[in-house]
Amino acid sequence: MLTNGKTANLKDIVLKKREPEQLKLFVTSWNMGNAEPAGMENIFGSPEEINQYDMYAIGLQESTYNIKGSEDTITHLQNRLKSIFRGFFVVQHCYRAQLQLYVFAKESLRHRISGVEQSIENTGFLHVFPNKGGILITCIVDGTKLAFVSCHLTAHEGVHHCEQRNASIVEILGGVRAGDKRIDITEQFHHVFWMGDMNYRVTFDDSTPENTKKNIAVLNRVASKKMNHVDAKDIVVTVDEEEAFAGIDDEDDSDSEIPTKKAERAANNKKIMEMISKEQWKELLELDELNREIKSGRVLNEFVALQPAFPPTFKRMRNQAIPPRQTQGLLKWNLRRASTTGTEDARAAPEERTVADFYHEKRYPSFTDRILYKSMKTFDGDILPEFFTSCETAMSSDHKPVRAGFAVNLTKGRSDIFVHRMVVGRRNDRVHGHKLRLLVSDLKGRNLEEMDSQLFGGGSDPYIIVTSDPPSLLLHRDKIRDYYEGVKSKVIKHNLNPDWKETLVLNLASVDFEGLARNATLIFQVWDEDTYNADDLIGCITLPLRDVLLGIAERGEFRFDDVLRSNSEVMGQLSGTIRLDGNLQDVLDDAQAITADRGHTNNFLSLAIAEREQANSNNGGCCVIN
Fold first, then answer.
1. How many Cα atoms within 13 Å fall on the side-chain side of residue 417?
2. Can the peptide bond before residue 130 be classed as cis, meaning omega within 30 degrees of 0?
3. pLDDT at 14
4. Which of 366, 394, 419, 513 could be bridged to 202 by S-S, CB 3.0 to 4.6 A?
5. Which residues pair with 305 in a beta bridge?
6. Which pLDDT tens digit goes with each residue over 455-495?
7. Contacts of 129 (CB under 8 A, 6+ apart)
């Protein structure tokens, strides 16, 4: 146990706060319904309103449409968006068939954005067709790692189709990769924003889907990708999906899952219309499939789904908009007919109609278009949602766009974690002192997911790999590396409840407790060893180094017992103990020296650059950078 003075000293350093810089982020998703967009500009507002945000993420589904002339729809839409976002540049534009994802940023941010990557996963027919799937774009702003996913999931009402949607999310997370390609984006990016036409419905059915773990659709993904006779990249659909994929993967009015009793369906529809008319959003959202699935833990664990307080965006009559309610009467709204330009036609006579007039009667009005987010534990609280609304005056589709504003607290990552000059030796960048040495023991896995086929006896052969964020924090054989595969445990054969009788040694290149507390994370990965195939990831946990240091300060050790997750699914449990190796006072003295005089330190960015320059010199001018 630490003395009170040492405890207070370490706690004060770790808990020291500073005012972060904020990034203003605008996220929107729109299923365009394969129609040339009318009222798209209304989603974003005036140029003055647009300039209030630093970055825009725009997810589009069913975004192909027929236009006159030789210009293709991708170029046509791209030019239209560029005309809206003057003073912004395209960080990345990723598309396949009808799915598109744009990320725009202000020109003033260009030199601060790095590490841009993209990835695509198809989940449509045979897991090859791109009529459904997900698109990923990632980037780093200063030291903050952002990931944006836009998706279009399986349609239809009914519990079976809800289960397919859950499986598609797992498949997307398992297929889109960036950063450390070994693990999914939710366990390594500081903030993940998820948007799209997710197709989760309002339902009166109490049936619940099966868990998606090892779902046959997910397992078949690998086999499906081997179908060389179909190239998904070359599939471009320019017609309405409801016609193109009827009977395969999209809407069909003869869907067997829809209640066959017309009276029952009519009564349910009336209940929904009454809730919309009375703006009873809480009651309506209690019938929402997505909320139910997240709450149950079956999908998107630890994600926050923004809650709509507006009329459902699906399935709407085209070229019509529901204005704000004007009267309090049941199902009574004062309305004007809206023009196809997305503006109110002042010449039209007022007409009193019911909410039901704005929805297709064969579909329950539903919040299919959604926006969610998730933060790594180290950065919990750094996303501040500002609003979540729909845009009624985007008129051309049978969906209304949804949009959300966020303030994101930025971190500087490795540029904010300082390392003493003595850490870097004169030969081979070897570390001689001024480092933090942690000991990890009492490691136990419980209820690990079975990864091996029953044909080979089932079970799993687990082992642990510990990595860090930023990756250069964890030393490799006492050397600083910009990327390191991690500290590995021994393999325990055929055991779903393993106990590792060993101590893992983690050498961290910094004792800058202040910088570590703001920016650093330990990532524990549990893997299943395969003899003949690539090893399988069972799951990950992330531990904020801030929490580890506070545990050491208060109790002399940090104990953890957390849920392993992979592709947002729960895959078991991992527990253990972390202690400081060595004399705490010596470590605190080093930390105080860094705090007192940062002129005697280099940050990680400088070290990484210096390492590459040295490698370039040692290799006769040839430097290979991973």
1. 30
2. no
3. 75
4. 366
5. 372
6. 666 789 999 999 999 988 898 777 777 667 899 999 999 99
7. 122, 230, 232, 235, 245, 249
Looking up tokens 């698109």 gives 135
Distance of CA 428 to the CA centre of its chain: 38
Q: How far is CA 123 from CA 167, 299, 345, 461, in A?
A: 9, 16, 41, 30
Nearest to 11 by CA among 548, 553, 378, 592: 553
The pTM of the whole model exceeds 0.70:
yes
Q: Which pLDDT tens digit goes with each residue over 528-562?
A: 999 888 999 999 999 999 999 999 988 999 999 99
User: If 0-12 CB within 10 Å is exposed, 13-18 middle and 19+ buried, where does residue 525 land?
Assistant: buried
C-alpha triplet 440, 441, 447: angle, nearest 5°: 110
- What's the average model confidence in pLDDT over 23-48? 96
CA atoms within 13 A on the CB side of 620: 0
User: CB within 8 A of 374, min separation 6: which ones?
Assistant: 186, 191, 192, 194, 300, 302, 303, 304
At 291 the three-state DSSP class reads helix
Give the closest residue to 543 by CA, choosing from 526, 528, 558: 558
Nearest to 26 by CA among 78, 79, 84, 80: 84
Q: Is 555 in contact with 548 (CB distance < 8 Å)?
A: no
Q: How far apart are CA 523 and CA 469, in angstroms?
A: 7
The Cα–Cα gap between 220 and 222 comes to: 5
Residue carrying structure tokens 């997370």 = 173
| pLDDT one-digit tens code per residue, 226-285 | 333 333 343 344 344 444 443 444 454 444 445 457 888 999 999 999 999 999 999 999
Please list, in sequence order, all residues whose beta carbon lies within 8 angstroms of the beta carbon of residue 621, skipping any fewer than 6 positions away.
none
State the burial class of residue 622 (Cβ atoms within 10 Å of its Cβ: 0-12, 13-18, 19+): exposed
Cβ 350 vs Cβ 431: under 8 Å? no
Tell me what pLDDT residue 624 has.
28
Q: Please state, rounded to an integer, the average pLDDT across all residues of the chain.
A: 83
Residue 535 phi, psi (nearest 5): -65, 150
Q: Nearest to residue 414, comparing CAs of 314, 273, 509?
A: 509
Mind listing the pLDDT tens digit for each residue in 424-465? 543 444 444 567 899 999 999 999 999 987 666 678 999 999
Residue 595 DSSP symbol? H
Residue 558 tokens read as 């940090």
User: Length of the chain in residues, anyone?
Assistant: 626
Residue at token pair 């239809």 = 156
Between CA 301 and CA 105 the distance in angstroms is 29
Nearest to 361 by CA among 227, 253, 281, 231: 253
